[in-house]
Design brief:
This protein has 235 residues and is α/β, with parallel strands linked by helices. It contains seven helices and twelve strands. A hairpin with a 5-residue loop joins strand 2 (14-22) and strand 3. It starts with a strand and ends with a helix. One of its GO terms (molecular function) is nucleic acid binding.
């Protein structure tokens, strides 16, 4: 799946909409759009609309949209026909057809924040060169979502104190593929990779933690899988 961010800023009664999309092969698309709008909540929503229009145009499906506006999330849930009483919305079907999920994160984690606020050129990948089949050769490669609280755990446990939300989510999916499934109870799964444990509930990573031991057999299986993964991707 891809992971995308949206944000908006208001300056001189103009709204600067920004979105960033990170794909499976680490390609990045960035867009900044200027519209006549002075309401910040509406601008935040319009940024999401612009992203969805982009995804529809290029038929880019299966991904996550993250943004930092609780108000927009609330309005989207509250009223499917109108938002903020004056903007008609019709993206519910698009979200479903494109197999998208939305998630709210703090502003400081929103990669699109700087893009919408700063008038600075930021390069993008060439769309035709993006490899959405990057992991297709890897059998059963996971595409789990990540609960926000897991980011802090990931930063601490893996000593990646500046890791962004998408980096952590993508990294954990890779680690899950490398790991051993040590517990599988209904919708709850626990994976072991060296001295770390990753807990998944349904389709979402909800917790990671360390244990005080490493099983030698697990250690060598992880190493073999890492070599196998590299070969599969390079084919």
């Amino acid at each position: 799946m891809f992971i995308s961010y949206t944000d908006a800023s208001i300056k001189n009664k103009k709204a600067y909409l920004g979105f960033v999309v990170i794909f499976e092969d680490s390609s990045v698309i960035r867009r900044r759009i200027v519209v006549d709008e002075s309401n910040n909540n509406i601008a935040e929503y319009l940024a999401i609309c612009e992203l969805i229009s982009f995804l529809e145009y290029y038929n880019l499906k299966k991904g996550l949209i993250v943004f930092d506006s609780d108000s927009v999330k609330h309005q989207m849930k509250k009223n499917r026909k109108k938002i903020f009483n004056n903007i008609l919305i019709n993206i519910e079907d698009s979200i479903r057809e494109l197999q998208l999920r939305t998630q709210v994160i703090p502003r400081k984690l929103n990669v699109a924040h700087k893009l919408s606020y700063q008038e600075k050129f930021r390069p993008s990948a060439i769309i035709s060169e993006i490899n959405r089949s990057y992991y297709d050769k890897v059998p059963n490669y996971p595409e789990y979502y990540m609960q926000l609280s897991v980011l802090s755990e990931y930063r601490q446990i893996y000593n990646k104190r500046l890791a962004s939300f998408h980096v952590a989510q993508m990294s954990l999916n890779k680690k899950i593929w490398l790991a051993d499934l040590v517990e599988d109870l209904n919708d709850i799964k626990i994976f072991a990779i060296h001295d770390r444990r990753i807990k998944v509930v349904k389709d979402t990573v909800v917790k990671i933690w360390k244990v005080n031991y490493v099983q030698i057999s697990n250690h060598w299986r992880v190493i073999r899988r890492r070599k196998k993964l590299k070969k599969l991707i390079e084919k």
